[in-house]
Amino acid sequence: MQAASKQSYSAFGRKIFMDLMLKTRMRDHVQLFWERTQDEEIKRLFPFSIESMEQAFILFEESLKEDASSYGKVIYFEGRYVGDIWCYGIDESNEKMAMLSAVIFEKALWGKGIATVAVKVFLKEVFNKYDIEKIGAFTYSNNHGSIGLLEKTGFEKIETFVEDGIESIYFEIQDAG
């Protein structure tokens, strides 16, 4: 499914045109994502909890079930697979929220606005698809790119905390409905 393609977006006060698509995540994407995110710089900036490719495949299979608590897409830019975006911990009953994660593993594309556009498109889709009122996101305090991304897409800083010796920040966005 194509979520956005060659459309204009406002970024940094000017219009930009971006060949960006959010597509259905397939098994091949899981393997490539795992391989590309084993880069030391990426591992230092993003709080991954998956410890093996086998675990990644198991979680992918779980996400395909009708009652799955996660939902994701892959990000294509100019026809190339460059990252993933997903929500996990989707809770439509009690807290009415989910958690967001987005990773562009093509480091040459960092800072180009690709993740910003992908997050904006994905947030609309998730708020329409699920009965939730807010989405949270964590990032490490030293990941200035992710902090900027979350702030540009409307997330508000809720708290700073230390976990496993690493300072992190928790953000939330409310459904503008």
UniProtKB/TrEMBL annotation:
Domain N-acetyltransferase: 31-176
GO molecular function: acyltransferase activity, transferring groups other than amino-acyl groups
Leader sequence segment: none
PROSITE patterns: GNAT
Pfam families on file: Acetyltransf_3
InterPro entries for the chain: Acyl_CoA_acyltransferase, GNAT_dom, N-acetyltransferase
Keyword field: Transferase
Keyword Transferase: yes
Top-level taxonomic group: Bacteria
Name of the protein in its database record: N-acetyltransferase
Source organism of this protein record: Mesobacillus zeae
